[in-house]
Amino acid sequence: MKKLFFPLAALTLSLGFTSCGGDKTTETTTTTEKSTANPADSVAAMAGDSARMAKPKGVLVDGVAMTADKDIVDNAAAAKSVSTLVALVKQAGLVETLKGTGPFTVFAPTNAAFNKLPKAAVAALQDPANAAKLKGVLTYHVIPGRLVAADLKDGQELTTVNGEKLHISVKDGKVMVGNGKDAPATVQIADVISKNGVTHIIDTVVLPLAK
Fold first, then answer.
1. Where do the DSSP E strands lie in the chain?
2. Is the dihedral angle over the CA atoms 183, 189, 191, 193 positive or is it negative?
3. Which of 47, 74, 98, 99 is buried most, with the most CB atoms less than 10 Å from its CB?
4. What's the whole-number average pLDDT of the chain?
5. Over the stretch 15-53, which tens digit does the pLDDT of each residue have?
6. Does the model's pTM come out above 0.90?
7. CA angle 135, 147, 156 (to 5 degrees)
8. Are residues 166 and 206 in contact, defined by beta-carbon separation less than 8 angstroms?
9. Which of 40, 36, 152 lies closest to 104, judged by CA?
10. Angle, alpha carbons 63-86-6 (nearest 5°)
């Protein structure tokens, strides 16, 4: 049976991650390169993203408007309920990545989500000696590409930036995301659109399973 990277009773930070020749004729040849676009960045996702971006008031989080003229990090920094996540992103050196072009889909645990973990687990995440392992946990919450809630389907598997899979389930209209074994996190606020992607705020930290 698989074990959590971070058993909640006794946390162990052992996360492994990674993060033509031309023809000698005068004819014009056309080279078709294999697309590197992530399947997550679907036409439906982009269309939903654009529609949301057209709303000048954005999406309210903690009473603050998250608007499409800001990047993922700047929007998150303005929301008090995800301040723990923002601090950990800074500590892990992921700020510039998440301020980059993207697009990215981020499942962002709230402060209350981190509070569900044992204090020792959070302290371990904050230990500079565990910077690489922290980065692996955080990137488990990030998907290359842009997926709005309408693109998240029951039974879907998404490949995260750290290479592991996230499992999507949808029940009674609620979107949930998990590691495939433990109780999943529920999306509390969906489709927080930024200029370089979309954030879904979740109520639980999702921990990857050991291989």
1. 59-61, 64-66, 104-109, 142-144, 157-159, 165-171, 174-178, 185-194, 197-202
2. negative
3. 98
4. 80
5. 333 333 334 333 433 333 333 444 445 444 544 444 444
6. no
7. 85
8. yes
9. 40
10. 120
